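User: Could you walk me through two proteins back to back? I'd like the raw sequence and the structure tokens for each, with a short line separating them so I can tell where one ends and the next begins.

Assistant: Of course. Protein one, sequence then structure:
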Amino acid sequence: MATPATPPPERPFGPASARSRHPRSARHRRLQLTARNQAVALCIIAAGTLLGWAVPNSESWLPKVGLTYDAGTAQAALAAIAGAMITLSGFVITALTLVLQTVQSMSPRLVGALRHMGRYLALFALLVATALYALVALSQLGGDTVPRLTVTCAVALVLIDAVAVLYTLASLRFAVTGGGLARAVGERLRLVVDASFPTPVDEPPASGPAPASPGLPTEPLTWLDVPGPSRPGVLQSFDERRLVRLLTEADARLELTVAVGEFVSTRTTLGRLGLTGAEVPSLTLPGLVAACARYGPTRTVEQDPSYGFRLLADISIRALSPAVNDPTTAVQALDQIEEGLLRVCTRALGPALLLDTNDVPRVAYPAPEWPDLVALALDETLLYGAGSPQVARRAHALLDRVEAVAPPARRAALSDRRDLLTRLSAAALPDPFLRTLASTPDPFGLGGPPN
């Protein structure tokens, strides 16, 4: 049975200016993609095995088309194809290992955050399916029958495999570079920002108090604690639609005190559940609400936009480390950080509400404010990159561009970073020429045309 909670000092559901939205789809995107990739791979392997049995057994009544071989040469060709595809599958596994090592060198968190593994899994399944097709077809052949169609299909599969391997190898040139990883993270960050922060910044009312939010309970609420996980882990996401549906049916409110992306221990409560009555059936609701939370070993981007900025900052500061010393990659990461900040700066941020179908607030949850996101996106890169004229110039251009779009109330955080960058560059670059060079905004970093 849930224990009563101390009522919160102030009600989080009242202000009409609070950021609010309706719940997003209950499907967990990352798990869905993983399951889909695995299902596609299994289907490809099963299709290759089935074709290896069906095509040779259909030779007798299908038209005599395809490449012409004698029986011995056809069987030797199928055996060679099977052996070659098994060898090539090992090559793909080796290449995948190298890809993982390269991605981990940029940031160990990128391996779980990006979706490159799906294409490699499909390629591996295609090679295995071709090998199984040849092996199963060999088991169906016998006598002096010339399997013209069977061998032709095997050669066609080899051509498809060759095209897939060449395409994958060509894509590796961009997928495993620092700039390619930054672009992949930036693309996902833009999608999550649009979904998590759909509301633009509200203009302050001209005069008069804000109207009350709809649907607030008239009687006092009974507050209960919502239990945390049975095992410690990172709060990755919530099943928002299920959570709002449960609260609507019980006419309850939930104030979350743990943010998505936060590590949650077993003795931590997720938040406070406000019930309009103290009926015994309602006391089972905290457990049902707690079951809507999903935990894992690491953060994910799906409901945690700040994690996208964390990954971009990781790429940037790793490139600026003395062991790597690659300021150009840091500039490419700043390109994506700039786009993310440009999208976020005009959106309503901070604590938010989830609404039910009648626009009644049901869930209040914490979320980062604008200064928090700016600090996460820029501070470490400014600290480690102030001594690089290329990074400093690109950072000045970023601050100018975001400040030109940001509302006046949000420009102070950007001005603070500009002053910080100037002080750090002055300390890291004692030569007056380099200090002047580093203080000039340049979207290219170095070599850009004058604005």
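----
Protein two, same layout:
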Amino acid sequence: MATITRSTPSPRLMGIINPLVSFLVGRGRGRVAERLMVLHWTGRKTGEEYSTPVSRFDRDGRLFTNTRASYKHNFTDGWPAEIVLDGERQPFVGTAISAPELVGERMRELLDALGPKHGPRALGLKVEGDPTVDELAAHAAHEGLVVIEFEPA
């Protein structure tokens, strides 16, 4: 049985790091731009414009990220967004996938693709052992973790 815990920096540290990361992703070069993207969207209820760096997963022509942050609710039924990829801001529609079994499958796929060193860190996890899809799904359900898939607009 694997142990899975959240492993993300504090909100205070993220507030310091996010502007630098956004700048680096906007330049479109290096490891930061390969592993992260900047998500821009307008809040459904507030109408406010938001942006945040997020993990970038591009597998088999599918672009997605994972999050437990409250902005995930904007993407429940599909929502327009712009994403900075490789230094260019591009229009997309993001759709949140919240079914734990589907999130667990996607997380397992990423752990396999990225390997034991980079996979957990990219997913914001600390993993001891080799988690099954069911264990990852249970973690996703407990943490409110979703995957947001993006399609070009």
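The mean pLDDT is 94.

Let me know if you want the two compared in more detail.
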